What does this fold into?
Amino acid sequence: MRIVSFVGQKGGVGKSTLARVLAVAAARKGHKVLLGDFDLEQLSCIEWSATRLRNGIEPDVEARSFKSLKKLRQSVEGFDLVVVDTRGLADELTTDISLESDVVFLPTGTSMDDLRPTLALARRLAKNRKIGNKIVLILSKVGRSNRLLEIARETIANAGLEVLDNIWPERDGFQADLDIGKAGSESNNAYLREAAALIEADLLYLALDNQ
It folds into this structure.
């Protein structure tokens, strides 16, 4: 069993979105997946999973809410992959979850408003040697400016951190899919499916294949 977490220092950078994208991609590959939602105020993954079930979308992706690692440990038997979505503001539990995880994804936008707190969190987590080599940044909700994307990549490289080659683009269609219980390459739009498939391949490789 593998545990992969999506953590962040602020909301609105696609953390919950990408957690669902990975969960769906893994489930479609035949893996038994559990979405662990630690954001008890938002419960985005729980609501999305319920919507998916109501709309009869397959494969099923089970989601459960947790407030502690103890509860998570008691519930993970029989799963190939546990995808953890943490709350937007990092806290002590974020560090504990990162220690338990095989991979720690930190999504970030390209703006300095997103990059600064994300890099600060990455540096703080990396001080623990058991977490440092697990951290991977994801450029998420990326607009159409290649210049901003290049600056963001350079900023991350200068910080000595790893970032996924592929990006998660900012497209209204992705949110529309989430609203009905879909995610990523389940989109009806061919362009969105192609864009999602690229980052799904990166996520799946790190989550399940790179062992």
Residues 2-209 form a domain with the Rossmann fold fold (CATH 3.40.50.300). The chain has one domain: 2-209. The longest strand covers residues 135-142.
